[in-house]
Amino acid sequence: MNQLTTYAQQLQTLVVLYLPRVFMAALALGVGWWVIGRVSRVIAKTTARLDVSLRSFLTSLVNIVLKVLLLISVAGMVGFETTSFVAILGAAGLAVGLALQGTLANFAGGVLILIFKPYVVGDVIESQGKSGEVREIQIFNTILVTPQGDTIILPNGATSNNVIVNKTAQNRALVEIPAEIDAANDLATVRAWAIPLMLADAQVLPDPAPEVVVTALKPGGMAVAFRAYTHAGQNLPAYGRLIEQLQQALGRQGVKCPVPVSHTYTRVLPE
Questions:
Q1: What transmembrane ranges does the database entry give (predicted)?
Q2: Rounded to 5 degrees, what angle do the CA atoms 108, 134, 240 make?
């Protein structure tokens, strides 16, 4: 009987001691959970202009971090020792950070690309020695597709820290067709028929105007380039048409190609 009385007194003491803590912890949990929901909605609204993938990732990340902190705080209010939890979380975070430092760098690069937009889906870019059309911008990688049908996966960390050449940011692309002609040809005459021929193509832009320029001088001839601009994404079809039309026009206009020059060397033997 005395033992039951002792248990009852201990139970009463525990209830008196911990019931207010449990009540306050439950209240803090409910209020905190509601506040976290409001904060998540505010973040979703303020980041509405960002990419959908980035917006959802940031919202869920903030939501999870705040809920973990809330649960640790509530546990401390009840009376649990939270130092060990914090130490475990810190050690786990450090281990995960060291193991995933490359992935985290790619994530940070993806966030920077999505925020500052050095390129968007549909642009043709060159980075890290690779070139192609941007098909998709993911959190960790950028997906390129080449005209040959190859798929190139660029890590965002390295891409954001290297030179990026955006070939279609100005909504135009260069079509350049090189050729070699004889030095006796009059360049002004070549320009007189070549520029109207390029302008006659429906996809060639009048501004910047097409041009014919000398790119190199060679024995018996010169290297020229027929240059024209199209809208982004129209350069490859225009290239195919123009190279065929220019090849036929060179023959019709009587433009001569340089004759290869052979050099004969005479070796004088000592007497």
A1: 15-36, 57-80, 86-116
A2: 160
Q: What is the pLDDT along the chain (271 residues), one digit of tens a residue?
A: 566 666 566 656 655 566 677 778 788 888 888 988 888 888 878 777 766 666 766 777 788 888 888 888 887 777 766 676 667 777 766 666 655 566 778 888 888 888 888 998 888 899 988 988 898 888 788 999 987 889 999 999 999 889 999 988 788 888 999 999 888 888 899 999 999 999 999 999 999 899 999 999 888 889 999 999 998 778 888 988 999 999 999 888 888 776 555 444 445 545 5
3-state helix, strand, coil in the chain (%, to 5): 50, 20, 30
CA distance 205 to 200: 10
Tokens at residue 147, please? 């005209």
Cα–Cα dist 149/160, whole Å: 24
d(CA 13, CA 230): 84
| DSSP β-bridge partners for residue 137 | 142
Helical (H) or strand (E) element with 152: strand 151-155
